[in-house]
Amino acid sequence: xxELIKQxxxxxxxxxxxAQQVVDVVANxxxxxxxxxxxxxxxxxxxxxxNSGNTGSGNILGDLGxxxxx
Length: 70
Fold this sequence. Notes:
Layout: H1 2-12, H2 16-33, H3 38-45, H4 60-67
């Protein structure tokens, strides 16, 4: 996942923490839409799979994703 975050930072100029949040929101969205691929997504991104879609309380992107149904 660090390679993806690095590319997002380089191409967009957003801080690494925000890039991490974006990746988490997108990964959780895809896992909700295609649950059969959840394990592969976790494997690809190097995540544990225990992220419920909420990337933390007070997290703007996590809250936005929740409000949009992600």
